[in-house]
Amino acid sequence: MIFKNDTSFIGDNFLLDSKTAEKLYYDFASKMPIIDYHNHLSPEIIATNKPFENLNEIWLKEDHYKWRAMRANGIYEKYITGNTTPYEKFEKWAETVPYTVANPLFHWTHLELQRYFNIKDLLQPSSAKRIYETANKSLKQTTPRQFLEQMNVEVICTTDDILDSLEHHILLKKNYTSIKILPTFRADSIFEIEDHGYNSYIKSLEELCNSTIQNLSDLLECLQQRVNHFHENGCRLSDYGLPQIYSEDFTDSEIDSILTKQFSGKALSLFEINNYKSCIQYYLSKMYFAKGWVQQFHLGAIRNNNKRLLTSFGKDSGTDSISDFSQAKSMSTFFNRLDNEGTLCKTITYNLNPSLNEVFATMMGNFNDGSFPAKMQWGAAWWFSDQKDGIEKQLNVLSNIGLLSRFVGMVTDSRSLLSFPRHEYFRRILCTVIGNEIDNGTLPNDINFFGKMIENICYHNAVDFFKFDK
After folding, report:
1. Tens digit of each residue's pLDDT (9 = 90 or more) over 190-233
2. Whose CA is closest to 216, among 154, 177, 261, 186?
3. Which of 43, 138, 375, 390 is most buried, with most CB under 10 Å away?
4. How many CB atoms lie within 10 A of CB 4?
5. DSSP states of 277-330
6. Nearest 5 degrees, angle CA 112-CA 413-CA 384?
């Protein structure tokens, strides 16, 4: 498959279906700074601020979206995660790109080439070498921070394991003030008591806290130390990547027994595993509330499905999928418990299974309490839903069931510094959704009102919601 060299499809009015949408985008949305409150960027890369060696390093090295597409296109694994040269891997991506038409990767690829490198050619085998050389020349002259500043990024919240020293965040806070680079408390590993590495992880936590963990009280004391450390270094958000929220009844003495059993090397039952996870989730949420943090739940993934790739490459190899886990009952039980105790903090849930969009949207609306507008948020279209159709569905369901005007907007959820045009992608879709409603006569023709609403969704709502300066 070969394209003629026509790059006009990403023009000034890309994804903008009407003059109204164009006005909303250019007069309002496009001017807003970016607050990217959930991503997987490396704070070390931003702290050291060294230019990237080549386009493969910044664009393909950790992008499991592209890996999945390349595998689907029949590319051998050695050209994806293997030991071939960077250019050979890039060539195989260029070979794959024409086959990604109608996939968001096709849009993202060409948006990123245009916005960062002013490259307007379509990426395909015939243009691969020229694009690679042009981008590499620019990369050697541009630092990671310059890429962020180029995209008008104001705040970034990275995703950091609770054992992280945060040394690079500390360095950035001292030496780089143009953009806030803040940590997020990611506690997934402390949940994975069934994992063979759990006891080793606890040993690392003990060393970090200069303590011995023998029971729940000891564990909670260490976790509080880590929460304090993160808070002192600018953290205002937590995050989980879980199949579902855990909401089993438990007693502290039961958890003590479970930990004793685990540390002695005995196998735990599924009931014990879920009780432990419910306990840790509950107590961590109370710690977050005390700090005034926002808690995030990324729910609904079934991970590492391909054991062959898990064994050879490890986690995050691009073999995760949408699951069909039940979500409503566990969310209701968990949020109810905290709400009844007055310790339910601001919360964002992200849904991976689009068949449950209305479930998530209605559940989050149950626990608003008047303390803050849309305290309970159903978050942006995420992962497999992070494309035109998925974004439109999320916006429309939120409009129908909640308050779109209070939505805190988009995130990249990406490991790549070149992913920030996804905010532009979202903003253009948002402006078309609102613009079409205005043009159809189902919303008033008040451009200034809706322009301000769009500015709020793109920026101001997040500023007010997260309060990073406090």
Report:
1. 999 999 999 999 999 999 999 999 999 999 999 999 999 999 99
2. 261
3. 43
4. 5
5. HHHHHHHHHHHHHHHTPEEEEEE-EE----HHHHHHT-SSSS--EE-----HHH
6. 90
